[in-house]
Amino acid sequence: MRLLRDLFDKNAEWARRTEAEEPGFFTRLTGEQTPHFFWIGCSDSRVPAEQITGLMPGDLFVHRNVANLVAHQDLSCQAALQYAVDVLRIRHVLVVGHHGCGGVRAAMNKQELSGPAGEWLRPLRELYEQKREYFESWSDDQARWDKLCELNVIAQVGALSRTPLIERAWDRGQELAVHGWIYDLRDGRLQDLNVTITSKAEAESLSSS
Ligand code: CO
């Protein structure tokens, strides 16, 4: 209960194997981090960022929360974004949602959302409500759920590209792209939703479309 021995054993084995495969790996990483990607994903245990992209420690700067939401008033997300954009000068921000997201499901359900999770998911419930007619025209519940997972990613890409931090980066000529991806739990595959935004002008055309 207190020690979780297994996890420490697994960690020791992983560290040993990693160093054996690439001698000096950990020493190299003690200098500074130079990740190329900022990953904003869901907390879901089935969507581990590095594992599903085959990347290693040092490759991804990561922020995960329930249902991969980007809220301007969320200090945790904004602080990570600030560090990623202003200090690490990351060029690619990846918003990665996933099909079968429990947070998205909860926002679709009719019952009242309660507690901190309910408060957190409110913007998602609003997104669903805005498009309720569209969604109710679908008979397939799974397809509806999948679609809201995708629309959520697109909404977060839009929110990110209107974030002052990102607008300022574009204003000073920094190269920065915001991507929207979806991960399918059923086959382990990532899909690009083709909503990449690389400038203020593109952000404006997304919000007016
Ligand atoms: Co999720």
Mean pLDDT reading: 94
- Order of helical and strand elements: HHEHEHEHHHHHEEH
Task: Report the bound ligands by name, code or SMILES.
Answer: cobalt (II) ion
Oligomer: single chain
What's the CATH topology label of the largest domain? Beta-carbonic Anhydrase, Chain A
Count of structural domains:
2
Major beta sheet, strand line-up: 2-1-3-4-5
Largest sheet: 5 strands, mixed
Terminal-residue CA separation: 53 Å
Characterize this entry briefly.
The protein is α/β, with parallel strands linked by helices and 209 residues long.
Could you give the topology of this structure?
Elements: H1 5-21, H2 25-29, E1 37-42, H3 49-53, E2 60-65, H4 75-87, E3 92-98, H5 102-108, H6 115-130, H7 132-136, H8 141-161, H9 164-171, E4 177-184, E5 189-192, H10 200-208
Parallel strand pairs: 1-2, 1-3, 3-4
Antiparallel strand pairs: 4-5
Helix pairs in contact: 5-6
The structure holds cobalt (II) ion (CO).
Question: Would you give an account of this structure?
Answer:
- The structure is a single chain.
- The chain has helices spanning 5-21, 25-29, 49-53, 75-87, 102-108, 115-130, 132-136, 141-161, 164-171, 200-208, and strands at residues 37-42, 60-65, 92-98, 177-184, 189-192.
- Helix 5 (102-108) crosses helix 6.
- The chain is an alpha/beta fold and 209 residues long.
- The chain starts with a helix and ends with a helix.
- The chain folds into 2 domains: 1-31, no CATH class; 33-208, Beta-carbonic Anhydrase, Chain A (3-Layer(aba) Sandwich), CATH 3.40.1050.10.
- The chain is built from 10 helices and 5 strands, in the order H-H-E-H-E-H-E-H-H-H-H-H-E-E-H.
- The mean pLDDT is 94.
- Cobalt (II) ion (CO) binds next to helix 5.
